[in-house]
Structure formats: structure tokens, C-alpha cells
User: What shape does this take?
Amino acid sequence: MGRSLLLRGRSFFGRRKRPQERPRHGGTQPMGSGCRPRWEMAATLHVGRGGGRLLRRLLREGAPSRTRLFFTSAPCCRGHPQKKRWATTAPRIPSTRMALQIFDMNYGTQFGSLWPSIRISLLSEQKYGALFNNFSEVEVVAQRLEGLNAMDFIWEAQKAVEDLDSMAEQVSGVPVSSPGTEAEPCEHQEQPIFSISPNIKCYTFPRGDISRFPPAKPDILGILGYYLLDAASILPVLALNVQPGDVVLDLCAAPGGKTLALLQTGCCRALAANDLSGSRIGRLLNVLHSYLPEQLFNTVTITRHDGRYWSKRSDIRYDRVLVDVPCTNDRHSLKEEENSIFKHGRKEERKMLPMLQLQLLVAGILAAKPGGEVVYSTCTLSQLQNEYVVERAVELLKIEHDITVQVEDLSYFRKLFQSTFSFYQDCRLGELVLPHLSANFGPIYFCKLQRLN
Ligand SMILES: C[S@@+](CC[C@H](N)C(=O)[O-])C[C@H]1O[C@@H](n2cnc3c(N)ncnc32)[C@H](O)[C@@H]1O
Assistant: This one.
């Protein structure tokens, strides 16, 4: 590709000129404007192949005195269009802005008229929940949280549904099921059975209340009373419906919010917490040490493997598997430059995310025993990383492993938790919590699958 060199005056490539060398009227002064420029030479060289060599020689040996060198974007002598050249210092668009541009393009189409409201919520301050630590001084911590006017949204939701059910019973005279109970099949029974992991408590401030939780304090044993997280990220753990004696795998576990929630159930006979990242495993270990008594450590195994190849490493088949995959992490990507997947150099990695997610989900399902249950979750709104991944995994397991997977209905989550979260109504397979200014949690997508054979 040819390039052209414009030779004018002197001073090139960053060397500061002495004041007497500087043209009095500025270097861009047009010729013939009445002021006599002090440049001795002004020339444009059109150079084809070998232009780089010429430039290096000029730099080494020095250009003629009072000569300025410029690259121009003039077409080269062969008439080919000039390739645009970027200085290495050209400012790059910040990752947060890049993320917003891409979201506007994709989510504008995906969510239509809902997008402006989701967008402003994503750009506003996020709301937190306090995951209650059952292994701390429970009464003191509960009093402290209730004193702040926060409520356990899981208990509130179950109570509200129980109240509705008993009202319905009184009106119809037909018994209806309650949350968390496996009722006998019954012809009259049309209410769904709410099956959620037990013993998990998570405090939130009421809708519209944007108060913040103070940091948790250690008790006399040094154990912290609650863990702050996006309250919607508890929903995938609730959906997993861990039962007493279950052997559980958390395939992408670090930094450990959901691992901690799984342990709060008190149901895990054994829990394998795995992650690929060593530094994030360090954070997971810190979390477990800060929140659990030592005797509970016997039930937890921490490993650092590539989750995609899990079943090649372990023969254990699990009752429950959580696959909380890496994703575009939408809220974080709009706020933080650091570690952003939208950084210039991470474009390829970003494009490959759905493939990585698919591989992790397939590995998670292969690690489940027949009849076992798997929850797939992300913190993105992207259909490509959510529903498409689930669809592809179901197809792939059938074709390549002859394994049948059934997607389970989680629509009762919408009814149960409607007063705390804003749910998207048009998901086909799973559930999606949409950020909303009055309940600024999420985005969290979760979908439950059962391995049938
Ligand atoms: C969304 S985060 C998990 C958050 C965690 N479940 C929690 O609640 O704190 C996704 C995690 O997947 C891990 N990861 C990425 N690629 C992985 C792989 N191939 N195998 C296992 N873990 C992986 C990342 O290091 C990251 O910690």
C-alpha cells in the first residue's frame, strides 16, 4: 500500500522546537495570505512500496533542515485508496460506552418499548439484598436487619401465597397446596406446587426504598451476619430446590454468593464448589471462612478445573447442579471499565461467550444423575446467552449423548416474588428479572432442567 509524506518546515515526531524555530504565524498558515512563512521547504512525497524504508532513513539521517514531515491520506500514486492509519495513542471508546452502544442496538430490538425503562435502571444505582447467615447469631442479626425496616422477601412471599391459598380454600372449600409442599395429585388441584430450596433468608428494603445496608459485623466468633448481593441472584438457588441429603455441584462458584446460599439450606450432604480462576477461588475461600463455622468445611470441596471438562475428571453424579456461567455481566459492564468484557482486546472472547456457556451447561447436565436437576443462570439480558444456550444444550445432549432433558416450568416464581422483583413476561423457557427503578435488581436469568435418563 502506498503512502504519502508531506515535507514542510522542520520539527518532526514529538521533538519540541526551540522558540526561535517556531513559525510566528502558525504552521497551517496558507501560502499567499500576506505573511511570509518561515518554512524553507514544503513538499509532499507520494511514496509507494518502500515508503517505510524512506521514512526510517529520514528519521535516522535527519530530514533537510527546517523540514516538517506529515503523513497525509492522499491517494497513493497507483490510485488505490489509502488505508486509514491510527496513531497508537488514538483514544479508544471506553468499554462502558461500547457496552451501552451494543445494548442499545440489541436490547432495543429484543425488548422494544421496555428497553428505555430497563436502560435507565441499569444506569442507576443497584439495590442489594442481605443474605442471612444461619451460622451467625441469628436473633441479633434478624433484629438488626428488621430494625433497618428490611424484610426477608422469601418468607414474605411464601406467607402472602399461603394467605391467598387459605382464602381460596375458605371460598371454594377445596384444599390447595402450599409453598414448598409436595401435595398428592388431585383432580381439583389447579394451583402450582411451589418447590424452592428451604431455609434461605434474604432481606431487602421495600419497593421504592433505596436505603443501603451497612456492612455486616462479625460476631464473637468472628462470623459475619449477612452477605450483600443482588437479591435476584438468590432466585437460581431457590429454583434448584435442594433437598436434605443432596450431593450438589456448583460448577462456576466464585466468588461464592450462591455457594453460601446453597450452604444456608443445611441440606447439602456434600457440596463441590469449582471455578477456573485462581484469584476468584481465593475470594470464595475468604467468603467461606468469614461466614461458616469450621465443622461445615468438611462438606465442601473446592476445586479449580475447567468446568467444560468436568465429567472427564469426576465420576460422581450429582442430585443438583448449579451452572452460573460467565456472561456479559450487563450491569457491571455499564459501570466499570476494569475487567470489562467490552474492552477493545476482548472482542473475540465476547463473541465466544455463548459457546463457552453452552459447553458449561452441557457439562453440568452430564454431571447430574438421571432424575437430577440443573439450574442454568446468568446476569445478562441477552437472549443469545440465555434461552438460545438452553435450547442448543437440550438439542445437543439428545443428538450427541442420547440424553433427554426436560425444561421445568418456573412461572410460579413470578407469582411468588412479584412484589419484590420485576419479571419479564415473554421468556419461553426460563425466568428473567428485569431491572426496574422501583426494584432495581437484576438482570438475572435462570432456567431449570431435569435430566431424565
Ligand atoms: C457469574 S460468575 C459466578 C458467580 C458465582 N456463582 C457467585 O454466585 O458468586 C462466573 C464464574 O465462572 C468462572 N469461569 C469462567 N470460565 C470457566 C470455566 N471454563 N470453568 C469453570 N469456571 C469458569 C469465572 O471465573 C467466574 O468466577
Q: What stands out?
A: Residues 1-51, 58-80, 178-189 have pLDDT under 50 and may be disordered. Residues 1-15+40-81 form one domain.
